[in-house]
Amino acid sequence: MSFVKRNPAKRNGKIPMKKRIRTFIDNSPYLWMLLPAVITVFVFCYLPIYGVLIAFQDFMPGDRILADTTIWVGFRNFTRFFSDVQFLPLMKNTFLLCIYGFIIGFPLPIIVALSLNAVRNRRAGKVLQTIYTAPHFISLVVLVGMLRLFFGRYGLVNNAAAALGAERISFFLENPAFRPMYILSSNWQDFGWSAVIYIAALSNVDPQLHEAAMIDGASRLQRVFHVDIPAIMPMISVMLIMSIGGLMGVGYEKALLMQTDGNLGVSELIATYVYKKGLTGVPDQAYATAIGLFNSVINVVLLIIANTTSKRFSDNSLW
Amino acid sequence: MKQGINKINPGAVTRIKRGDKVFFFVNAVFLGLLAILILYPLYFIVIAAISDPDAVLAGKVVFCPVNITWDGFRKVFERKDIWTGYRNTIVYTAETVVLSLLVTIPAGWALSRKKLPFRKFLIVFFIIPMFFGGGLIPFYNVMSRLHLINTSGAIVLPAILSVWNLFMTKTFFESSIPEGLLEAARIDGAGKIRTFLFIVVPLSKAIMAVMALYYAVGQWNSYFNAMIFLQDEKMYPLQLVLKEILIASESTVGGSGETILQQYRLANQLKYVSVIVSSIPVLCLYPFVQKYFAQGVMIGSLKD
User: Fold this and answer.
1) Which residues of B touch A214 (CB under 8 A)?
2) What is the 3-state secondary structure (H, E, C) of A119-180?
């Protein structure tokens, strides 16, 4: 701020400045309330983002990230990954698992929400929803444990198959069984939970729209297509953008639990490979970080593309 | 959850069209099948846990338990590791819930205030981690730098704030605290902190319940951080113990038929029982908190 020119505009600007400081002091308690959250996010989210720098280094565990002795290697860890024999299978496994999961897992909650919303008996709808949501609270360990019990050689599924005269199959040792088991169990666990958000949106639909449609002679099914679906369209777009952003972001937690020597050919994903390279055996942290970073960058790019596309063709976008 | 139709037009029931009848029937069948698909596996776990293990393996247990036995439960009650794990998990979960509420609720309130200094910047600061992270290895290195490896801090501290939950809390506060009440408090001379503690907090039981549930379930069910950060088996949470029971021993599958069968016989019952014993607390808790879900769940309003 210059004090030389004393034009009236500047002088006028001075009093608000004082006032602005007052407002700031007045509202500073809010900053104190936010401080613990800022520190937590900084430590557990932003420090790791800073730690990503080791992807561009020749890094040994225990090295400092920025030191005089740091050896910068540019993109060498990335090019090494691109020429890794595992590169193509990993990309393929991750992508296929996510895309199949998306094709089934995205529409299912919407269908369930529309269907539940059309139930006329309120109490029945509530009970059904409680049932559908319950599996969400089962842990991954227990879920995969149940899968292994049911799909084991002498489990429920094989017993049923044997009773029908089919041969017993060790599903967990078979490559082709991995993706269906992974995706169907994920959907079994989460479709009810994912539907909640659409159900909430549907319950906010103006009843007059339904009344008007009924007076016009619309059947219940027609009202689903012409009232319910348009009403939740913004929500669908937002969820679509988010799931496209997560299209390559499948986690390691469940896949790790489902891996066996028999299905490694399809169950090894980018995320599980990062874990194995970086934290088990002889850790190669810089390499693993580079692979992880590559994966996150793909996700961010997908998210941006989805958001931009959605913005261009409709009013719905995340930002 | 509200079911819109009968609320607005109860008379509609008596005037159902023919086509609608088909629709409602198909709809009911679809939803019924889904419910069976969810319930049957859970029901099977229960009947398999109390049935004779041989009958389970032979596929004789389908709709009701066969030769009811409580051996499995006895075996589980004798296992020290399960109970140590249980105790650890309860402690970790309680710590996580208390700390996370202390962090999330004030932060959500602050973020929901238009007058928060640097508001735009702070919101972006919290949004970025939703979509981009450093990944596993840098996270591990941060924890190791902070000397949290093999401490309960490694389990609890990273779990005390989820930015998703933070934004859910913010949305709740934006929509459910009447502005007039705050104005009245201000006129009565209450400061920002006092207003928060004595007016906002008592009005936010719903969001606190939802947050407590989310954080509790998240911590109760997580195994991965414990797996990479804890070496001392005495500190293992329940899920890690379960992982050893349910999953590690299964990787030996693949030998000759007879040995597999023997292995199954010994381990299976224990597995069914431990699934039940570990999941009961969470499944019992959730119907009570379920009524709050709808309020918290509209996170679509990320934009502002």
Assistant:
1) 9, 12
2) CCCHHHHHHHHHHHHHHHHCCHHHHHHHHHHHHCCCCHHHHHHHHCCCCCCCHHHCHHHHHH
Q: Which residues contact B145 (CB under 8 A, 6 or more apart)?
A: none
Helices and strands (H and E) in chain B: how many: 17, 0
Q: From B9, B294, B300, select the one nearest A223 (Cα to Cα).
A: B9
Q: What is the pLDDT of residue B301?
A: 39
Q: Name every residue whose Cβ is closer than 8 Å to that of residue B35 and which is 6 or more positions away in sequence.
A: A128, A131, A132
What is the second-level CATH architecture of the domain A84-313? Orthogonal Bundle (1.10)
* Amino acid letter for position B268: N
Judge: B253–A253 Cβ closer than 8 Å, yes or no.
no
Q: Are A93 and A267 in contact (CB under 8 A)?
A: yes
Count of CB atoms situated within 10 Å of the CB of A300: 14
The pLDDT of residue B11: 45
Question: Between B223 and A18, whose confidence is greater?
Answer: B223
| Pure H helices in chain A | 8-41, 47-51, 76-82, 87-105, 107-117, 122-133, 140-151, 156-163, 175-203, 207-215, 220-223, 229-245, 252-258, 264-267, 270-279, 285-313
Report the C-alpha gap between A149 and A172 in whole angstroms. Answer: 10
Amino acid at A120: R
Q: Are B208 and B295 in contact (CB under 8 A)?
A: no
CB contact under 8 A, A52 and B126: no
Residue A214 above 90 pLDDT? no
**Cα(B278)–Cα(B148) distance, rounded to whole angstroms?**
27
Measured CA to CA, the distance from residue B255 to residue B259 in angstroms comes to 7
Cα→Cα distances B126→A49, A208, A292, B286, Å: 14, 39, 21, 28
Please write the tens of the pLDDT for every residue from A154-164.
788 888 888 88
Rounded Cα–Cα distance for residues B163 and B113 (Å)? 17
Residue A169 and residue B302 in contact, taking contact as beta carbons nearer than 8 Å: no
- CATH number for the segment(s) B74-297: 1.10.3720.10
Shortest Cα distance from B94 to chain A (angstroms)? 17
Global ipTM = 0.85
**Do A52 and B223 make contact, defined as CB atoms within 8 angstroms?**
no
| B-chain residue closest to A135, CA distance | B38
Q: Tell whether B6 is within 8 A of chain A (Cβ).
A: yes
The sign of the CA dihedral A158, A163, A166, A168 is: positive
Q: Which distant-in-sequence residues (6+ apart) come within 8 Å of B262 by Cβ? A: none
How far is the C-alpha of A24 from the C-alpha of A77, rounded, in Å? 47
Does position B108 have pLDDT exceeding 70, yes or no? yes
> How does DSSP classify residue A219?
-
Q: Which residues pair with B223 in a beta bridge?
A: none
Q: Amino acid letter at B67? A: N
- Per the document, the length of chain A is 319
* CA dist., res. B258 & res. B261, Å (int): 5
Residue extents of the structural domains in chain A: 14-74, 84-313
